[in-house]
Amino acid sequence: MTHTEILEKLSDAVKKGFGLDESVLESLEEALLEADVGAETAALLTDAVRKRAGSGERADLASLREMLVAEVEGILARAPRTAPSSEVPLEVVFLVGVNGSGKTTTAAKLAAREVEAGRTVLLAAADTFRAGAIEQLEIWAARLGVPVVRHKEGADPSAVLFDALAAARSRGVRKLLVDTAGRLHTKKNLMEELAKMRRIAGREVPGAPHQVLLVLDATTGMNGLAQARRFVEGAGATGVVLTKLDGSARGGIVLAIYRELALPVVFVGVGESADDLVPFDPADYARALLEEEVGEAAPESTAPA
Ligand code: GDP
Which of 39, 116, 150, 214 is 20 to 30 Å from 59 at the Cα level? Predict the structure, then answer.
């Protein structure tokens, strides 16, 4: 369900009901659930609207929308903001998440942003497990003209990181982007491996890793979110890159991330090319989630089949 559909559904409900009655509130909660905002968030938003309605407000669609936008903005404002680390001489950024979420691609996209801004960057191919991950990163690196530190497939990811940190320092690059594994070849726990990598980074570069970006595939919806929680607890994620929002994904997942992971969305992936990565803007998002010309969309949905 897209944001337009949320509004269409609400518009229908508002027309059939009398102002803001229970049937409208039910439709609202349903629409929010279908948009993947998550059960807790859907209930919270609906309750907030119910409270306002209880205080005698007779809402039409426009005021309902305004109430929701205000509540959504409230949710987005509560997550901690990632501290700008442009002041450090070498910024170390880890990309973590399950296989297929888009870590390698996102590492390349982030590198492209640095190149674009005229800053120096180094890639570390520390996903030594997934077949082809190292080559994939090398192809991106060659295309972008960015150096990459790699070992053989199956090598110790911490050893790759160690070498990459040394290379980054000796070359004096501004940013080190570390692609990590979504799964390990050994029985060793992935979270333990990531914890070890964080310790190594911190020992070699003060304050590192400065960011641990959890890469999350938007199309996996609430299931993906449950998996993601492990990376928040185990890998110390500081922010989210939400990938594949160009597909059929529902934008509501952003709210679920803020509410249920308490992490800010930093970037959004909107395609497979190097420039398909955009900074996330909470204010724009809150408006866009519930803004469309409903008045024009409505006749279609009320027309006889
Ligand atoms: P990894 O296993 O986490 O490193 O995932 P990859 O970086 O290999 O990405 C898995 C697949 O998702 C690849 O085919 C990517 O091209 C694709 N992908 C990554 N980000 C996006 C995105 O924002 N939009 C779309 N449409 N595809 C993406």
Answer: 39
